[in-house]
Amino acid sequence: MARSGGNPEFGTKYVAPQTGPELLSKKPFNIRLPQSDYDALMAIPSKKRASLVREAISKALKELESQS
């Protein structure tokens, strides 16, 4: 369930932690990056960036599932 918080400057909202594919498809979430990483990420064209972010999140979720 979403609640207030996050960074409106970047259009992010706080979302209670969840796992599974619904996190990737429906829920906005807030990830904090160092400025240099953020700048590097923003230099990538938006469609490619979205694909890379989805791939990284999917990989991280699979690693978490395999650890439990």
Describe what you observe in this structure.
- The protein is mainly alpha-helical.
- The protein folds into 2 domains: 1-32, no CATH class; 33-68.
- Helices cover 51% and strands 6% of the residues.
- It is built from 3 helices and 2 strands.
- It has helices spanning 21-25, 35-42, 46-67; strands at 2-3, 14-15.
- A two-stranded antiparallel ribbon has the order 1-2.
- The longest helix has 22 residues, at 46-67.
- The radius of gyration is 13 Å and the shape is extended.
- The two termini are 24 Å apart.
Brief rundown of the structure:
By secondary structure, this protein is mainly alpha-helical.
Question: What tags apply to this protein structure?
Answer:
68 residues; mainly alpha; 2 domains; 2 strands
Specify the overall morphology.
Answer: extended
Number of helices: 3
Number of strands: 2
Tally of distinct domains: 2
Report Rg. 13 Å
**Sheet having the most strands:** 2 strands, antiparallel
- Placed side by side, the strands forming the largest sheet appear as 1-2
* Average pLDDT rating: 72
Structural class from helices and strands?
mainly alpha
What is the string of SSEs from the N terminus onward? EEHHH
Distance between the termini: 24 Å
Query: Unreliable runs, pLDDT <50, ≥5 residues?
Result: none
Q: Percent of residues in helical segments?
A: 40-55%
Strand content: 5-15%
